[in-house]
């Protein structure tokens, strides 16, 4: 039946076959006939739901366009309302005031090192390095990056903060007209002013303003000051390679300063330098052949800022760095933004530094070391660098710091540098990992202070019977036969801790190191790390040992007590965090380390020091391969101090041996951890602390009476007669200079459970050993 006939039938009231329902139509409900007046529309269509009536697509689209219109009108209003302010970059610079913990003035820093130069004085290709680095579209954009600005606004509103993608015009506006605040208001103003500046000023004027107001590090504002600070030339004499380095610096000035950069920082700035030059080639601003002929332009040695001589500069720089890191974490600033927000911006920063302890530490270094150095008589004396950090383990406060002989003479802070090996000061971390993991030897015995290991020098380390290709020599190649963990720590027996690291699992050892505060990023979990072959700073080691002293609660040393700026106070993180290892494990490490002082490698300089007066002390010595670094990190119940000595060529900055320094040591004149570092530590610590006792929750180690004496261990009096502690008083420990790897022809010695038949003997160090381990032998320390 056709549609016309159906319609006529309905009009007559007749009933024919009901039309078929479309699939999209709902079936009639019970009791409701098709076409009846049961509430359905006459057309048969279902009624719209309330949600569909409120949120129809037309209404949503209308609302969207309405919001867009309001946004456009609002932006037009903002554009008309916001004017370009007076440029005031120089006036924004104000002195920062730094105070000791008692409120007395330490330093006042704020003299701005800036000299404005005309863009015509800067070589054209050097100008283009900045464009290539920051904003390739600079010459044909409108002055703003809308997507980047939108991303920044969203991040600011959501609390993420950190933004990227700003144009050169926006960065210039931020530096010259505004500030580094991460607020929606500031970002909107930046957007509007950038648009207006781009319309009213030429691109050359904007570029000149940008390179003349940016901060390059080394207290240098503007390209002229930066050219002098990094290359000792005027801006007009900069090469393209040098310009590319300065342009790369702007992303993170202090992190990318070659003089103080970490390995990671050097890698990143090199990558960015290449990025700048590659962009220039891509844009046609530099030929490929010229690009290929350029070499990385290493900067000149920096000079300290005025008014920061002696230790002041090191303290000020560390305070700035810690404040910058907090602003980056708290407000989402980039590294460059944080530096711009801190350096010479009117901060009042009170440090945790105790004036009396600071003076005592400086005096201890002078009387025990630097006063004995004479570079005119001995070339090696000019290569000796000292660094030290002293921390209150209960609060995490850095109460004293020694960064070098003078900030003007040595810009690099020795207290915070992490390019030298901590050597055997890492051994307590291995023990901590073993105790925390309830690890066992490979024959199933729990690792405790009384566990017996095979102390044979150059003993092949085994992993469940399989060679791992590592067999480090002990100090002076001494064989120790069967020896307890306590004795091995006292005598710093490399072969024992190399095996222990494998027993525990090197991945677990390195994980524990990270929990305790060591920066383990990029470090390999290999057996050679048991000898402290990684890099670490006195600041790091002080934090690790402070965590031991604080019963396993994480201590992150901080130099800042408070930081205020124009009524605003920055909340600094609590230096003491939660528990990262158990109290029993931490206290056992402390107990064992008292044996190093009383019966081991630090006995002569620390335990027998006439200033000790019964003070309880725990600590560990360390001397790296080829005598390039020497350490003593130790603590009383109330104070942790890490002292490091480093051999650094004064011209090339290469790591060199310290052998023969001062001319006061018997042949071969080795500087070791139990010598000058321990002497500095003792002179300082015993002069500023009162007698106190450790509160230990452990039944192990030298600080407590053992509950049971195993019949299979040697007592401390049965250790070899030719130990490091029986050398002359100036050299309590004497590291070997042989590489730590085992020769291919050497056969493995006994496992830890076997007993060597020979008695302990010592032999002369051997040389020219072919490494079986793939690690570079020059990077593996003696570990004493």
Automatic annotation (TrEMBL):
Ranges of biased composition (kind: Basic residues): 9-23
Gene3D superfamilies associated with the record: Biosynthetic peptidoglycan transglycosylase-like, DD-peptidase/beta-lactamase superfamily
Gene Ontology process terms (BP): cell wall organization; peptidoglycan biosynthetic process; proteolysis; regulation of cell shape
Annotated spans, Disordered: 1-46, 604-629, 702-784
The reaction(s) this protein catalyses: Preferential cleavage: (Ac)2-L-Lys-D-Ala-|-D-Ala. Also transpeptidation of peptidyl-alanyl moieties that are N-acyl substituents of D-alanine; [GlcNAc-(1->4)-Mur2Ac(oyl-L-Ala-gamma-D-Glu-L-Lys-D-Ala-D-Ala)](n)-di-trans,octa-cis-undecaprenyl diphosphate + beta-D-GlcNAc-(1->4)-Mur2Ac(oyl-L-Ala-gamma-D-Glu-L-Lys-D-Ala-D-Ala)-di-trans,octa-cis-undecaprenyl diphosphate = [GlcNAc-(1->4)-Mur2Ac(oyl-L-Ala-gamma-D-Glu-L-Lys-D-Ala-D-Ala)](n+1)-di-trans,octa-cis-undecaprenyl diphosphate + di-trans,octa-cis-undecaprenyl diphosphate + H(+)
Key words, A-Z: Carboxypeptidase, Cell shape, Cell wall biogenesis/degradation, Glycosyltransferase, Hydrolase, Membrane, Multifunctional enzyme, Peptidoglycan synthesis, Protease, Transferase, Transmembrane, Transmembrane helix
Ranges that cross the membrane: 60-82
Protein's name according to its UniProt entry: Penicillin-binding protein
